[in-house]
Structure formats: structure tokens, C-alpha cells
Amino acid sequence: MNPRFILPLLILLTPLSLLLALSIGSVPVKLAALINGSDALGRSLILELRLPRALSAFAVGGLLALAGTLMQVLLRNPLADPYILGISGGAAVGALLSMLLGLGVGWTTGNAFAGALLSMLLVFSLAHSRGNWSAMRLLLTGVVVAAGWGAMISFILAISPERGLHGMLFWLMGDLSHAPPPLWGLIITGTGLLFCLPFARDLNVLARGELTAAALGVSVQRLRLMLYVVASLLTATAVTIAGSIGFVGLVIPHLLRLLGLSDHRRLLPAAVLAGGCLLVLADTVARSALAPQQLPVGVITALLGVPVFLYLLHRRGGNL
Amino acid sequence: MNTALLCTQKLSVEISGKTVCQQLDMAINAGQRWGLLGINGVGKTTLLHTLAGLRAPAQGEIRLGDALLGALPRRTVAQKIGVLLQADDDAFPGTVMETVLSGRHPWLGQWQWEGANDRMLALAALDDVGLDGFEQRQVNTLSGGERRRLALATLFTQNPQLFLLDEPTNHLDPHHQISLLRLLDQRVADTANQRASIMILHDINLATRFCDHLILLFGEGEVLCGPAEDILTVETLTRLYGHPVIAVEGPNGPVFLPK
Predict the structure, then answer these.
(1) Are the beta carbons of A272 and A62 closer than 8 angstroms?
(2) pLDDT at B1
(3) What is the spatial distance between Cα B112 and Cα B185, in angstroms, rounded to a whole number?
(4) Is B88's CB within 8 Å of A208's CB?
(5) Per-residue pLDDT for chain B (259 aa), expressed as one digit of tens each?
(6) Hey, how many other C-beta atoms are within 10 angstroms of the C-beta on A158?
(7) Is A216 in contact with B49 (Cβ distance < 8 A)?
(8) I need a surface site. Which of A88, B155, B223, B228 has the fewest CB within 10 A?
(9) Residue A132 carries which DSSP code?
(10) Nearest CA in chain B to A2
(11) Which one of A78, A208, A319 has the shortest CB-CB distance to B102?
């Protein structure tokens, strides 16, 4: 496929995925009854439950895919995802501690964000302590800090009373049923994208190597610092809204690159849209497949993403 | 008299405690083609990167025209100095056309896309290096020599005044070695544009053929630089490489061979 067509295709796909999310659910809603106003329940179901949730899913998917794209360029590693530097681990420890102590949803959200920021500052100051922070040093520091958070998560899970475990596991796998109103998530997604777009060509050059980028006129250290801060904040926002939903941030950028989209001026907006669509669809499946039981959306993103990704990888052959 | 394109004053360059050069004064003027020779690990690449502003000197200063190199914005430097690095990394490969167009990066504004003129320059550069028709190929499917030619085409698309090249003939067959060095020659000889080049070479005879000035790095900070004909002697080269070198009369002057 010509990579030029991917972005317009995604622009078409976005409203379709949202419409699908609105129309599917455990209670069927007829379009005609909605329009003539005779179905007040259906109307409030759609406007007050399904729409905010679908928009939250879109925002979170967009945030994760954008953060993943930025993180991969920053670490110069196509296997990087938004969580690789420990942001989600920090957030999870914040959230799980709040749940363990029986604090309310507001505290859980606030502490998740605080944990993410703490992890971001910790990794940065450790990786940066001796002046230079190469991609490798940053990656190793982040991975080790993430492992530390992982140990603390296991510890919290081990000492938690049984009745709290279900909520904690859902948080860890990512779940949109407790998402706050979607407005802020959408605003941050849009702002993040608009902020990154003027640097998209710099990212193209940085993807070819730090020295190459510097030789072509990019202030590499400034750009990398900006990437780190922006990608971390986007990830922190996503994790705060919906817990650590896996896979979107790793696979969406990769998938688009496999489809031939290597210019970040197209890749960044395409990642936001594709990540958003994937999560909207995955969340629709998560809340309707085994209704009334809800599944954690992270399970669905992986179940949907793995085969698609493997198929594309296979089709591309030895050409990667 | 014009100011030099690039000049150094009391320049000292060090890498991991080792001195590459000390108190080096030199001036690169328009039209000059410099060769940078020395044994493996003596610091040729380090010196080249320092002259390109990619790393800071230990002491002394480098001036690009009238301005201090370190004080200029990277973008301004990249409009004047182009660097051919030893190897590109391709964690995220793109197409040949995308790569060659990246040479226009320093010339485009933050929101600007490449225009018809940029595309024309890129296609002409691909044509020059014999990669016409490769535009849509993925870079990671190219051979080593083709990648080298692509890197040169990118450098030509960048169109700087000063070309700094780290082993430009690496991976190239004899035909492409000569034809690409000739292309570079034409660009430097074109006096309207005030260009110059510095290249790291391992082939002494390419250096005698394509360079009029030389910088020899002996290690321990000892440097000899100046016009090639004053410097190139069997004794100097023998000392430079720590290996006996002999001169044989060739069709266009002496040819130097390791014994």
C-alpha cells in the first residue's frame, strides 16, 4: 500500500470505530428510536456511558501510540514501548498502594500520576547524573527501575487481602470502566501531537542516528530531552486514565512502519489515530464479548494486535 | 585576502586521555582539497568530528568564517559544513528518496516540506552517484557500496561549502572510488561556490591524486600539515605508518607502495 493513503484511511476509520463502539453493547439501541426521541434510556446510555468511554479509549490509545513512537526514536530501539522506562511501574505502585489503603478513586488516580512523575524524574536523574545520557544508558537505567517497580507491585499484590486483588489486576492489565471524563485526555492527546509535529522532520533525522542528526543541524541533546519529557507525560496521562494497557504503544508505531510509513510528519498523526481506533475497538470487545462480565481491555489489545502484527511481519519477509 | 573557510587556533583535541593534536594552527581556504592520513586509532575521525563541531575541542578555537564554531546554532553550521560519517545506523530504515532528501533538513523551516527544488537537487545527486532509479528502494536492501554512494548523494543534496568525509571510498569498487572523488573534485573546483574538502583516506595514492594539502597525524599529538608536495616523501610516510614505504614511478608521478 502506498504510505500516503494510510493517514486518509485512518481519518475515515476513526468515526467508523467510534460509531461501532456506540452501537454495540449489552442493551440494543435502535437508531430510529433515538432520532425521534422515544428512547430516552437508549439516549442516556449512549451519551452518558458509551460515548465518554469510547472517547476515553480513543484518547488513551492515541496517547500510548504517540508516546511509543517518540520513545522508540529517543531510545533508537524499535522494541521500546511507553512503559519500558518504568513510568507505568511507578504509576502502578501509586495506584495499588492507594487501593491497598482503601483510598477512593480520586486518590488512586492522583497517586498513579504522582508515581509516574516520580519514576520519570528518578530515571532521568539517574541516567543523567554524569553529564552524558546515551540512549543505552537511559534504556538500562529505565529497565532496571522498571524491574524495581515490578518487585514492589508483586509485594503489594502478595500482602493485599483477597477482595482487593480483582480491582488491582484490572488496573494492572488496563481497564477503562473507571476512566474519568474524556475531555482532558483528548485535550492532552491533541496538544501532545501539535507540540510534536513541528519536530517531526527532526525525528526523521534522529532516527538515522545521533551523529547524523547533529551533522544535519539538529540540536540532539535538546531534542532528546524534549522527547523524554513529552513521551513520559503522555504515558503518565494514559496510565492515569486507564491503568497500564499493554501492546498499543509498542505495536501501533511498528505496524505503521511496517506498512511503509517512515516519515514522522505522517507517522505521528497516523499513530494517534490508529492507536485511538485500536483501543476503541478493543474496549468495545472487552465490554461486550462476555457481557455482562467485563474483560480488561489490555487482554483484548494483545489478542487483536499479536496476529495482525505477526501477519504483517510475515508478509514483509526478510526485508525488515 | 579572503578569510579562510575554516581555521583553527592553538587547537588541542583529546580522546579518552590520548592527545590527537596539540596547539594546531591551520586554515582551510576555498578551493583546497585536504587529505587526513594516519594509522588506525590515531584520532582521524575524532579530529574530523571536532572540525565539524560534533564534539568540543579540549583547548583552542575553531572558526567557521568569522564566527566561533561552537557558538553557532547547529542548523547554521549544517548549512556550511557537511559530514560524511563512517557508517549510518539503520534501526529505522526509510526509502532511498527519504534518505537523500534528509540532506535538505538544515535548509528547511520548522513546518516546511521539501519542495520541487529540493526534489530536483536530490534526484540530480542520485543521478551523479549512479543511484538513479533507486528512489523507492528501502535503504536496508542496499549493498555496502550503494549505501556509501547514497550517503555521498545525501551530502551533495545538503550542498555545504565545506565537505568533511570520513573514508569516502570505503566499500567502493575502483570505478566508483575514482568517479565519486572526481565528482567531489568538480564541486570543490567550482570557484563560484567557495568550497573546500577534508577527507580521511587510507590509500596514499588516492590522496596524491585527489588532495592538494595534507594533515598527517603521527600520534602523541604530533601533526604535520601543509601542501601535499612539500610533505609527501618516502621518509615521512614510512614514519607515519610505521612501515617501510617505497616510491615507484607511475604514469602521473610517483606511486607509493607499502614494502
Answers:
(1) yes
(2) 45
(3) 32
(4) yes
(5) 457 899 999 999 999 888 999 999 999 999 999 999 999 999 999 999 999 999 999 999 999 988 999 999 999 999 999 999 987 667 788 899 999 999 999 999 888 899 999 999 999 999 999 999 999 998 888 998 999 999 999 999 999 999 999 999 988 999 999 999 999 999 998 878 889 999 999 999 999 999 999 999 998 889 999 999 899 899 999 999 999 999 998 887 889 999 8
(6) 7
(7) no
(8) B228
(9) -
(10) B136
(11) A208
Q: Which CATH architecture has domain A3-319?
A: Orthogonal Bundle (1.10)
Please give the full DSSP string across B31-90, using - where no structure is assigned: T-EEEEEE-TTSSHHHHHHHHTTSS--SEEEEEETTEEGGGS-HHHHHHHEEEE-S----
d(CA B134, CA B126): 8
* DSSP alpha helix (H) spans, A38-134: 40-44, 51-75, 87-100, 105-128
- Closest residue on chain A to B51 (Cα): A215
Q: Which residue has the higher pLDDT, B91 or A171?
A: A171
Chain B residues in contact with A219 by the CB 8 A cut-off are 73-74
Angle A15-A21-A26 (CA atoms, 0-180°, nearest 5)?
A: 160
From edge to edge, which strands make up the β-sheet containing B67-68?
Answer: B18-28, B6-15, B59-64, B67-68
Burial of residue B55 (number of CB atoms within 10 Å: 0-12, 13-18, 19+): middle
pLDDT tens-digit series, residues A87-119 = 999 999 999 999 999 887 788 889 999 999 999
Write down all domains in chain B, each with its CATH number in brackets.
6-258 (3.40.50.300)
Beta-carbon count within 10 A of A132 CB: 9
Interface test with B, best of A69, A77, A199, A208 (most B CBs within 10 A): A208
Residues on chain B touching A201 (C-beta within 8 angstroms): 105, 108
**Residue from A103, A121, A104 nearest A180 by CA:** A104
- The rounded distance, in Å, linking the Cα atoms of B207 and B227 is 12
ipTM above 0.95, yes or no: no
Cα separation of B70 and B52, whole Å?
A: 10
B43: region left, alpha or beta (phi > 0 left; psi from -120 to 50 alpha) = left
